[in-house]
Design brief:
alpha+beta, Pseudouridine synthase, Archaeosine Trna-guanine Transglycosylase, Chain: A, domain 4, 3 domains, ten-stranded mixed sheet, 19 strands
Length: 292
């Protein structure tokens, strides 16, 4: 069984737990996800089966969308609601207009310091391992891109809450964005809840709730690898060129842009390979349909 499955992950499970459930239902070992969701988070978790696990890295690189709840007036040691409160103030003076005024400062290319609960490596260990041991280390800021940052709802009060819709690049920490927004308003803040609404072409509207997943649903909802990637496509109908790709040989790039990554499919839509365009040629670097 090969393809990509769009799962609506429930709260209270790790991404690894979801993969394990899919593995048991599909009755195969070659299953993986492309982009971890924290246990408390819900929403789109893209799961790859069989040969489609080879495109997991490209799916993980795809743009993502989230809906989150920002809580102002309280900072936590994890930057989300699961952590211990480290500072607390009355943020009743913060208005919707105040929040709207700072949103543009966090739109576009920005720098983020990864949270201590992230999987970033530091001297051979992941930051969350150090955090569990009570160790805090200096972390270098990293560039991320916030494509969209929209205020959906605002509730004033002692600890105001705001619902935000966010479009962002790979590597963006929404919990850190919430903490930084609170800091910019002078009252602190943390992420109260998180739901991932899209990964690349996969949206939460089309996701299968994990509790509804069985063998029949899995088979019917499995998306072929050739339909899972938002990449330029070259269709080969000439059998000689299909054979070239299957043997890892380059073919003319046609009108594909130099330095781009292209998916090559045959006339039936089967994904043959991923290729890089160089010097007017499609040079395959991942071949899926090998020569017989």
């Amino acid at each position: 069984m090969n393809g990509v499955l769009n799962i609506d992950k429930p709260a209270g499970m790790t991404s690894h737990d979801v993969v394990g459930r899919v593995r048991r239902i599909a009755k195969q070992k070659r299953v993986g996800h492309s982009g971890t969701l924290d246990p408390d988070a819900t929403g789109v978790l893209v799961v790859c089966l069989g040969s489609a696990t080879r495109i997991a890295d490209l799916l993980a690189d795809a743009g993502k969308r989230y809906r989150c709840v920002l809580v102002l007036g309280a900072q936590t040691d994890t930057e989300d609601a699961s952590g211990a409160v480290t500072a607390e103030v009355d943020a009743g003076n913060i208005t919707e207009q105040d929040l709207r005024a700072v949103l543009p400062l966090f739109t576009g290319d920005i720098m983020q310091v990864p949270p201590m609960v992230s999987a970033v490596h530091h001297e051979g260990k992941r930051l969350y391992e150090l955090a569990r041991a009570g160790v805090t280390v200096e972390r270098a800021a990293r560039p991320v891109t916030i494509v969209a940052l929209q205020l959906v709802d605002f509730t004033p009060g002692h600890k105001p809450t705001a619902t935000l819709d966010i479009g962002c690049s790979k590597g963006t920490y929404i919990r850190t964005l919430c903490a930084d927004l609170g800091r910019s308003l002078g009252v602190g803040g943390h992420m109260g809840a998180l739901r991932r609404t899209a990964v690349g072409i996969f949206t939460v509207d089309d996701a299968v709730p994990l509790d509804a997943l069985d063998a029949e649903t899995l088979a019917s909802k499995l998306v072929p690898a050739s339909e899972a990637l938002d990449l330029p496509r070259t269709v080969l109908v000439d059998q000689a060129r299909v054979d070239d790709i299957r043997h890892g040989r380059s073919v003319p790039a046609g009108d594909q842009s130099e330095d781009s990554i292209v998916q090559i499919v045959d006339a039936s839509g089967e994904l043959l390979a991923l290729a890089k365009v160089a010097e007017g040629r499609l040079r395959p670097y991942k071949v899926f349909a090998t020569a017989e």
